[in-house]
Amino acid sequence: xxxxxxxxxxxxxxxxxxxxxxxxxxxxxxxxxxxxxxxxxxxxxxxxxxxxxxxxxxxxxxxxxxxxxxxxxxxxxxxxxxxxxxxxxxxxxxxxxxxxxxxxxxxxxxxxxxxxxxxxxxxxxxxxxxxxxxxxxxxxxxxxxxxxxxxxxxxxxxxxxxxxxxxxxxxxxxxxxxxxxxxxxxxxxxxxxxxx
Amino acid sequence: xxxxxxxxxxxxxxxxxxxxxxxxxxxxxxxxxxxxxxxxxxxxxxxxxxxxxxxxxxxxxxxxxxxxxxxxxxxxxxxxxxxxxxxxxxxxxxxxxxxxxxxxxxxxxxxxxxxxxxxxxxxxxxxxxxxxxxxxxxxxxxxxxxxxxxxxxxxxxxxxxxxxxxxxxxxxxxxxxxxxxxxxxxxxxxxxxxxxxxxxxxxxxxxxxxxxxxxxxxxxxxxxxxxxxxxxx
Lengths: 196, 233
Hints:
- The complex is a heterodimer of chains A (about 200) and B (about 230).
- Chain A is built from 10 helices and no strands.
- Chain A has helices at about 1-15, 25-30, 35-65, 75-95, 95-105, 105-110, 115-125, 130-160, 170-185, 190-195.
- Chain A is globular, with a radius of gyration of 18 Å.
- The termini of chain B are far apart.
- Classes of the chains: A mainly alpha (about 200), B mainly alpha (about 230).
- Chains A and B meet through α2, α4, α6, α7 and α9 of A and α2, α4, α8 and α9 of B.
């Protein structure tokens, strides 16, 4: 049991990193990764929403499957996530102002973040149990954070670099993302190797 | 006559001047993910175009009915409805494409291009113009995907649309169909587009940060100096 959980967790963080190998959540990855502290704030909010969204959508999905309405998954999930994000924002604003100030500002961006909907849909597709789904979301979120923080570090170095004019800005960011992603290719087979 | 001319303009702007992928840098996730081959690029492009055109039409037809406070959730419901339709059609008639696109097919819901066009164009223009805008943007998206898919498939698998182009003696560079190749080809393409734009005196493509984001109006980041303004600089 623990072995399965650990395997799922490591897969999400290292081998199947959501940003670097599944290309989910690229917009915040490119947009909010200029500074390490904003990267941390954004990823913390993503982890929180991912786990919460999975916990909420799992029972809803069971209900949908029971009633032969799987085709409604996409529409139901996106609405649940959107409502959930709004709700979390309202609650944080009212009761946890300190937390709201550090995480809250990132919440609206997360509604249309493909990583959150992606993790929920992939959990269903993989047929995970409730526990496995939660662990997989946690892994996806932590993987998101690892990639964001690493990349923010890389980008801070890029600031002072001498770059050809047409490559400046976005293109060089993408090329360096390619290099970071290449380093993650090194983890291929790691999880199978350990937990085989 | 005048109307015809500007209709053509609405259509063509999505192709080059405001290409959603290479100029506006929207919809990056699907662009990177499904451009591993020409076939999946076409599948994704067409699916997104259908959703874009349909949702643009419906949203523009309902633009006076939807209260502006709840417009984003309303748009999301409309878009998700069409995505579900397309998903069912693809599953029924093109199971191969469905397998290739996998989770990225339902993820069209959160494609920034679609919500972005709904917010920026369909909510302000008539049905006809919105439909044409949708077709133009959709074709532009498909063209950019095709370009990326072509390059990546040619370099990464030595073939185009499944037909082998390179002889056996030249081994394909598999890295181009893997994730790093996607980022790399995309970066180089944007650099090229910038170069061309610069020659024509246009500003270069840049992640517009909040101004391009459809959530900007509801987002509290907009006012905060800490994140947004720093990012958009």
